[in-house]
Design goal:
mainly alpha; about 250 residues; 11 helices; single chain; transport
């Protein structure tokens, strides 16, 4: 249940707040990036297209790839920013707040591709207009992973870009300057609002069941049905959605 899309905001917001904390140390950067990708890996696995079995080794491979890429990018960018002498301390702090976005976006793509690579090798089920199974298509699998990867790039954009901008303005107000203890609660509310805005926007970019013309798929798929188009499950919305198989 914690890894359903309906639980993404309540379980993901505390992690986002941690990612955007100012004055991050090396240890805190590594910890929050690791925790974020651990959560993302579980969400990807729980909401995958499960028409084909996926071995646990693929899950571990995707998880390790995402964690390594996220930590490497975040730490590398932080080191570059700290060594940039031409920036003032205030500018350097502001830039560091935007570091989580490229790290998370890149890791999300890595996570999705590695964890669902089996779909590219074996294909995913495609259905005709009546819901009957037509066959398994690798081309449809590529489309599904591309749509999912784009979704996972758009999703963190408002979450990790808007709060630093909003907080840089709110921190200058007399209220927060006089009461610095309110900074963390206010940042949490800003992150929660950004998360609530970003999630429905990101998952609505592509339909859950995407449609594709049979002429774009493998010849055996086009020959197996009279339908001009077929549909496939994009994955990453409905938990372990399975398409019906015809009775033998």
């Amino acid at each position: 249940m914690p890894f359903r899309m309906s639980g993404y905001i309540p379980f993901g917001t505390p992690i986002v707040v941690g990612l955007l904390l100012p004055n991050q140390t090396l240890a805190s950067t590594v910890f929050w990036q690791w925790l974020n990708q651990s959560h993302n890996a579980c969400v990807n696995y729980a909401n995958r297209n499960a028409t084909k079995p996926s071995p646990v080794s693929k899950f571990i491979q995707g998880y390790l790839g995402a964690v390594i890429s996220a930590v490497s990018i975040a730490v590398g960018l932080n080191v570059l920013v700290q060594k940039a002498n031409k920036f003032t301390p205030a500018t350097r702090l502001l830039i560091q707040r935007f570091v989580p976005f490229p790290a998370v976006a890149s890791a999300n793509i890595c996570n999705v591709v590695l964890m669902r690579y089996g779909e590219l090798e074996e294909g995913i089920d495609v259905l005709d207009s009546d819901g009957n199974l037509v066959g398994s298509s690798k081309i449809a699998a590529r489309h599904a992973l591309l749509e999912t990867a784009l979704t996972r790039v758009v999703l963190p954009m408002p979450i990790l870009v808007l709060p630093p901008i909003v907080m840089s303005m709110l921190e200058k107000t007399s209220l927060l300057q006089a009461r610095p203890r309110l900074l963390l609660p206010v940042q949490s509310l800003v992150c929660l609002a950004a998360f609530g805005l970003a999630l429905p926007l990101a998952i609505s970019l592509f339909p859950q069941m995407s449609e594709i013309e049979t002429s774009q798929l493998e010849p055996e798929i086009a020959q197996a049905t009279s339908s001009r188009t077929v549909v496939y499950n994009k994955g990453l919305k409905v938990s372990c959605l399975r398409t019906p198989r015809p009775a033998p």
